[in-house]
Specification:
By secondary structure, this protein is an alpha/beta fold. It has two domains: 2-117 and 325-341, Nucleotidyltransferase, domain 5 (2-Layer Sandwich); 132-290, Nucleotidyltransferase, domain 5, CATH 3.30.420. Helix content is 44%, strand content 17%. It contains 13 helices and ten strands. The strands form two sheets. A five-stranded mixed beta sheet has the order 3-2-1-4-5, sandwiched between helices. A five-stranded mixed beta sheet has the order 8-7-6-9-10, with helices on both faces. The relative contact order is 0.18.
C-alpha cells in the first residue's frame, strides 16, 4: 500500500511516496533558501508563490522516482497545519485536487506529528522499532515542543516554548552576528572552534510549568554582548563576504571571525542544547518513557547529537537522518498510514490551520 505525501508548511515544497509505512520509495524537496536568504528570513508571500511554481513538478518527480502509477496509491496525504497559512493552502489544495480527480482518500496530517514519524520511519527501515512510551522533543525554526507519546501515538504535551523556538533563536543570532540566513547551520559548524564555557549565560527559570522553554532572553543576552564588545567592524566583514560568496566555507568564515566571537557562538549553542536536554531529562522520573525521539530541523545540529550521546539520559535518543530532519513529505506520508487504517480521512472542507495543535 502506497501513500503520496505533500508538505508545504513553510519554505520547502516536498512530495514523497511511502509504501506500507516503512519503505521510502521517493522523497523530493524543492528548497526556497536562495529566495529568502537575501531577506534574512522567510517572506510568507514569496513562499506561497514559490510553492505554486514548484508543487506540480515536485509531485510529478516523486511519482516518477517511486515508479508509481496513480492506481498504485491508496491515498494522498498533506500537511494541514501548523505553518504559514498561504504555504499550507498550496499543498493542501493540490492534494484535494488529486484526491478528487484520482478518486483517492484524503488524509490531513499535523506537521509536528510528521516530524515524530520521520524518526519512526527510519527505525522501521532499520528493523529496530522505537520502544514506547517515548518522549518526543520536536525542535525546529518554528516549534519547540516536548511530548509524551504512547504506543498508540496518543500525545500529551509536557512543555513548549513561550517565545522564540530554538531554531528561530539560532537563526536570529546567526543573522545578528553577520552570518546571514539561515544562521543556525553556520553556528553549528563554527561552535567547535570556540570555548563553550567562555561566556556564561543565565539559564531560563520558568514560572508555572518548569518544562516550558524560553530562548528570547538568551537571544537578548547575545545582543547585549555584541553591543558591549563593539563588533560592528567584524560583522560588516562577514556581511561583505556573504555579498561576494553566496555560501562561504568554514575556512572562509574563520578568516573573518575572531576567537572571542567563536567563543560566544560555542557558549550560545551549548546553552541552547543544555536547555533542551535538561528538560528531556527532567521528565524521566515522572514518566515511564523508554526512549527519546528528537526531530525537527534543529535535530541536524551536530552539537545536539553529540551531547545527547554523552548526557547520561535514562533512555536512548533517536535522531532522524539529516534529510528527514528538515521539512519533508516522507514524514507526512508515513504519519498518514495509521490514520488511513483507522478510517481518519478528510473531506474537501479540511482547512489549513496556521496554529494547529497536536496536544494540549
Amino acid at each position: 500500500m502506497r501513500i503520496l505525501g505533500i508538505e508545504s508548511s513553510c519554505d520547502e515544497t516536498a512530495a514523497a511516496v511511502v509504501e506500507d509505512g516503512t519503505r521510502l520509495l521517493s522523497s523530493v524537496v524543492a528548497s526556497q533558501l536562495d529566495t529568502h536568504g537575501r531577506y534574512g528570513g522567510v517572506v510568507p508571500e514569496l513562499a506561497s508563490r514559490e510553492h505554486l511554481r514548484a508543487i506540480v513538478p515536485v509531485v510529478r518527480e516523486a511519482m516518477e522516482r517511486s515508479s508509481s502509477d496513480w492506481s498504485d496509491l491508496a491515498a494522498v496525504a498533506a500537511t494541514s497545519g501548523p505553518g504559514l497559512v498561504g504555504s499550507l493552502l498550496v499543498g493542501l489544495t493540490y492534494a484535494k485536487a488529486l484526491s478528487f480527480v484520482r478518486g483517492l482518500p484524503l488524509v490531513g496530517v499535523n506537521h509536528i506529528e510528521g516530524h515524530i514519524y520521520a524518526v519512526v520511519l527510519e527505525a522501521a527501515q532499520r528493523g529496530e522499532p522505537i520502544p514506547f512510551p517515548a518522549i518526543a522533543l520536536v525542535v525546529s525554526g518554528g516549534h519547540t515542543h516536548l511530548f509524551e507519546v504512547d504506543k498508540e501515538f496518543h500525545y500529551r504535551l509536557l512543555g513548549k516554548t513561550r517565545d522564540d523556538a530554538a531554531g528561530e533563536a539560532f537563526d536570529k543570532v546567526g543573522k545578528l552576528l553577520g552570518f546571514g540566513y539561515p544562521g543556525g547551520p553556520v553556528i553549528d559548524q563554527l561552535a567547535p572552534h570556540g570555548d563553550p564555557s567562555a561566556v556564561r549565560f543565565t539559564l531560563a527559570h520558568m514560572k508555572g510549568n518548569p518544562l516550558d522553554f524560553s530562548f528570547s532572553g538568551l537571544k537578548t543576552a547575545v545582543l547585549r554582548w555584541v553591543k558591549a564588545h563593539d563588533m560592528g567592524a567584524e560583522i560588516d566583514r562577514r556581511r561583505a563576504l556573504l555579498r561576494t560568496t553566496s555560501r562561504p566555507t568554514v575556512e572562509q568564515w574563520l578568516e573573518v571571525t575572531p576567537r572571542a566571537t567563536l567563543d560566544l557562538m560555542a557558549s550560545f549553542q551549548h546553552t541552547v542544547i543544555d536547555e533542551l536536554l535538561r528538560r528531556a531529562a527532567m521528565v524521566a522520573d515522572s514518566t515511564t518513557a523508554r526512549a527519546l525521539i528528537v526531530s525537527g530541523g534543529v535535530s541536524c545540529n551536530a552539537g545536539l547529537r553529540a551531547a545527547a550521546r554523552t548526557a547520561g539520559l535514562p533512555y536512548p535518543a533517536y535522531f532522524p537522518a539529516p534529510g528527514l530532519s528538515t521539512d519533508n513529505a516522507a514524514m507526512i506520508a508515513t504519519a498518514a498510514f495509521p490514520k488511513l487504517a483507522r478510517g481518519e480521512t478528510a473531506d474537501f472542507t479540511l482547512r489549513a490551520q496556521a496554529n494547529l495543535t497536536l496536544a494540549e
